[in-house]
Amino acid sequence: MNTLTVQFGNRSYDIIVGAGCLYIVHERIQNESTFMLFDDNIRQYTESITSSASMAFHATEQTKVLPSIETICQSMRSAGIDRSSALIAMGGGVTGDVGGYAAASYMRGIPCIQIPTTLLAMVDASIGGKTGVNMQASDGELIKNMIGAFWQPSLVVADVTTLKTLDERQLRCGVAECIKHALLGHGDLMALLQSNREAILNCDEEVLIELVTQSAAIKKEVVESDERETGSRALLNLGHTFAHAIEPIKELDLYHGEAVAIGLCAATALSEAMGRIDAAKVDCVRELVSSYGLPTSLPIPQSVDMLNERMRSDKKHEGSTTRFIVLGESGGEIAEDVDEQLVALAWASVGGQLG
Ligand SMILES: NC(=O)c1ccc[n+]([C@@H]2O[C@H](COP(=O)([O-])OP(=O)(O)OC[C@H]3O[C@@H](n4cnc5c(N)ncnc54)[C@H](O)[C@@H]3O)[C@@H](O)[C@H]2O)c1
């Protein structure tokens, strides 16, 4: 079992990574009562956690919306949850984001314990305090993570045993985020990913503990240095600027991690076009992504003009239309004033259609 501590002064918290380690939650809880929000697909693991009250949640991007927060808060109120209590969010990133935001909002904030049960949530979503929900725009489109709060958890317990029931496609999606972390300049994690593909996809517990620990350590380091994403935390968006443009396109039928995988390939192509890395590095990233059965290009070609337009409207609420996260020789870098033609070439390298 490994323990990492995210250092935020008096809001510091531990991330515990192990196999069969859910019992730790009880050793650590100091709150008078707890309310557990759990993903209804992982009911079997909830027996390890005793809580004063609990509520099953059907976790999808469509239920990751404000009305769910109100329903959860109503349940907490009925259960007598008050400011001396804590919320336990157990499930994937959707449940973690919704549970975290409910905890941030209920009675102006109660502690939140995150128990991630997908690889993506273990290495990414449960760490760093970004919580929130999607917003339904006036035209009906769901705008991802538009409403939310920074609310650091008080504890994260990642039990890799729970990954054994995770759909393999979802497991691969978590690997995409691990590849992103490795690309941000961490050779050990890259070597682990390159030499343990079978063990990871077969859910070997020892290897998964190492993978989650190393990957979570990178996320921890980045968020510690920039909690509110005013600077270096943006590096974690490597590949995501491209991914956000393609993930909502229904006919592509991409999970978030798959869109990230294609986004990482596009971001490395952009980095090469900008002269920051060589072609061998681009090939290396594509090989690694594809070795995990993740897509390296769009399953159905899309017009580059349309993709750039989608990217521009996504970036409007990020505040910059020309800033990208790219790779340099020593890891992730923020690039300002990126030429749109190079971005078009990056799209073309993953199946975008020019002209
Ligand atoms: N807060 C952050 O910093 C952050 C970072 C990255 C992603 N996210 C968010 O996380 C979400 C994606 O998270 P996700 O990929 O975990 O998706 P998810 O929560 O939708 O889970 C994926 C699927 O796996 C099921 N599942 C979960 N654990 C399982 C298990 N152990 N066994 C069997 N089935 C299981 C779920 O019911 C769901 O159907 C997105 O909404 C994204 O915006 C947040």
Can you offer a commentary on this structure?
The chain is α/β, with parallel strands linked by helices. The protein folds into 2 domains: 2-167, 3-Layer(aba) Sandwich (Rossmann fold); 187-353, Dehydroquinate synthase-like, alpha domain. It is built from 13 helices and 13 strands. The strands form 4 sheets. Strands 1-2-9-6-5-3-4 form a 7-stranded mixed β-sheet. Strands 7-8 form a two-stranded antiparallel sheet. The termini are far apart. The model has no long low-confidence stretch (mean pLDDT 94). The structure holds nicotinamide-adenine-dinucleotide. Residues 39, 41-42, 59, 61, 64, 91-95, 97, 117-118, 120-121, 124-125, 128, 130, 144-145, 162-163, 165-166, 170, 173, 256 line the site of nicotinamide-adenine-dinucleotide.
Which CATH class of the largest domain? Mainly Alpha
CATH topology of the largest domain: Dehydroquinate synthase-like, alpha domain
Q: Radius of gyration, rounded?
A: 20 Å
The hetero compounds bound to this protein are:
nicotinamide-adenine-dinucleotide
CATH architecture of the largest domain: Up-down Bundle
**Which overall shape is indicated by the principal axes computed on the Cα atoms?**
globular
Q: What name goes with the CATH superfamily of the largest domain?
A: Dehydroquinate synthase-like - alpha domain
The N- and C-terminal alpha carbons lie at a distance of 53 Å
> Beta-sheet strand percentage?
15-25%
Low-confidence stretches: none
Count of runs of 4 or more consecutive helical residues: 13
In total, the number of strands is: 13
Work out the count of structural domains: 2
Q: Could you state the order of secondary-structure elements as H and E?
A: EEHEEHEHEHEEEHHHHHHHEHEEHE
Strand count, sense and barrel status of the largest sheet are: 7 strands, mixed
Helix content: 40-55%
